[in-house]
Design a protein that fits this description.
Helix content is 38%, strand content 20%. By secondary structure, the protein is of the alpha/beta class. The protein has two domains: 118 residues, Arc Repressor Mutant, subunit A, CATH 1.10.10.920; 299 residues, pyruvate-formate lyase- activating enzyme, CATH 3.80.30.20. The strands form five sheets. Strands 1, 4, 5, 6, 7, 8, 9, 10, 11 and 14 form a ten-stranded mixed beta sheet that branches. A three-stranded antiparallel beta sheet has the order 15-16-17. The protein has a three-stranded antiparallel beta sheet with strand order 18-20-19. The longest helix is centred in the middle third of the chain and has 17 residues. The protein is globular, with a radius of gyration of 22 Å. GO terms for molecular function: coproporphyrinogen dehydrogenase activity.
């Protein structure tokens, strides 16, 4: 059985803490370009239909009632709910356009609404969106699909949760970030314990099969002690999963972050103290480290998939369905169909113009070559399962691993000396001290990284 433990080595983390991708894809989204257009996407859909297999759908709902200063998502902040209606019209039209191109026999095994705040939509609007989706894609009717939604507890109540369950959702992720009152004021997200846990309890009552809590460390005014109090309060309700993200302060890229007082941000040393505390408390509570920012109960689907060698990673994070082509719907969403990544337009007016003309709203994309597919397979295996067997790569891609990746293997020698991994003639095994630094290990195999590294957040 796979060892899902981690080891917190402060010296190693300090030495390896540099900017790098999160590898929700390889190549990363930075490699998408405008030379890839609608005709290219249609060609990959045809190939995808010929290959068959299930589908995954991602819907981007960009609206938020208020702005959280730390947010780096593509969002539209408004209190006017009527602003969602024209966007919903276009989104439904895009569903029809895309649905017409995919084989109707292909089941939708996964579906996810993200944002923004998906529950910004009214119940009637959510009903309409799901009905249109069912009309154009082959959704499960027996609750066997993995249909998830991100919710803001400030925008959700018992009735909303019951409605979401009625619409077919069976997995839910709750945004929280931190309960400390001063931290909440500093990031403009005021959210009570009562709001949060009422939604969590309602989800369990309605039969949601998985509950996730999102937290962020590194926010202004946080300390290890205050964040520990937040974590202890959440642990008392024992969600199935935790996503605990490192706040990446990049105000030059994300304007809302300019409203954060940089003097209030915790030091790098303090962030490491918080991270160490988080790892200790969650493992003591019985959660296992999945990778990156994710912890789960041992019987959660993610933990089971990892032990069985079936875990995968896509633009929504860790996933249990590596066999699904991912279709992105709505502004800024990114899909993976066949051997291509595709992103929709990021701005409402461009999205509207394409949809109004009856075109797929393809903004840019990239077609993977054989080297991309080879490196993607390796990076996915490492970041999901913390090991890599050379023979499986050699058989799949007809290479001699030691010859093909001689420079990379040489670069890994120092990581082996530092105790991050173990290399043999058969493969690479990431050790407990290397799991928190898995991004660094994957970066060794990233041929695009050298010229793009400044555009990524730090790994810790």
């Amino acid at each position: 059985m796979i060892d899902q433990s981690i080891k917190f080595d402060l010296d190693l983390i300090k030495r390896y803490d540099k900017a790098g991708p999160r590898y929700t894809s390889y190549p990363t989204a930075l490699e998408l370009h405008e030379g890839f257009g609608e005709a290219d996407y249609r060609r990959h859909i045809e190939r995808s239909n010929a290959a068959g297999g299930p589908l995954s759908l991602y819907f981007h709902i960009p609206f938020c009632d208020t702005v959280c200063f730390y947010c780096a998502c593509n969002k539209i902040v408004t209190k006017n709910r009527a602003h969602a209606e024209p966007y919903l019209d276009n989104l439904c039209q895009e569903i029809a356009l895309q649905g017409a191109l995919f084989d109707k026999n292909r089941k939708v095994d996964q579906l996810h609404w993200g944002g923004g705040t998906p529950t910004f939509l009214s119940y009637g609007q959510m009903q309409r969106l799901m009905a249109v989706t069912r009309a154009h894609f082959n959704l499960h009717d027996d609750d066997s699909g993995q249909y998830s939604i991100e919710v803001d507890p400030r925008e959700t109540n018992d009735r909303t949760i019951a409605q979401l369950r009625e619409l077919g959702f069976n997995r839910i992720s709750l945004g929280l970030q931190d309960f400390d009152a001063e931290v909440q004021k500093a990031v403009n997200r005021l959210q009570s314990r009562e709001q949060t846990f009422a939604v969590l309890e309602a989800a369990r009552k309605e039969g949601f099969r998985s509950t996730n809590i999102d937290l962020i460390y590194g926010l202004p005014l946080q300390t290890a002690e205050t964040f520990a109090r937040t974590l202890e309060q959440v642990l008392a309700y024992a969600p199935d999963r935790f996503s605990i993200f490192n706040y990446a302060h990049m105000p030059s890229r994300f304007k809302t972050q300019r409203q954060i007082n940089e003097a209030d941000l915790p030091s790098a040393a303090l962030k490491l103290d918080i991270l160490q505390m988080v790892g200790r408390k969650l493992t003591e509570a019985g959660y296992v480290y999945i990778g990156m920012d994710h912890f789960a109960k041992p019987d959660d689907e993610l933990a089971v998939a990892q032990r069985e060698g079936k875990l995968y990673r896509n633009f929504q994070g860790y996933s249990t369905h590596s066999d699904c082509d991912l279709i992105g719907l709505g502004i800024t969403s990114i899909g993976r169909v066949g051997d291509a990544y595709i992103q929709n337009y990021k701005e409402l007016d461009e999205y509207d113009k394409a949809i109004s003309a009856g075109h797929l709203p393809v903004y840019k994309g990239v077609e993977l070559d054989e080297d991309d597919k080879l490196r993607r397979t390796m990076i996915t295996q490492l970041i999901c399962h913390f090991d890599l067997t050379f023979s499986s790569i050699e058989q799949t891609f007809n290479i001699v691993f030691a010859e093909h990746f001689a420079p990379e293997l040489e670069n890994l020698e120092i990581m082996q000396t530092d105790g991050l991994l173990r290399m043999t003639a058969d493969g690479i095994q990431v050790l407990p001290a290397g799991r928190l630094l898995i991004r660094n290990i994957c970066m060794v195999f990233d041929k695009y990284l050298a010229i793009k590294q400044r555009q990524f957040s730090r790994v810790i």
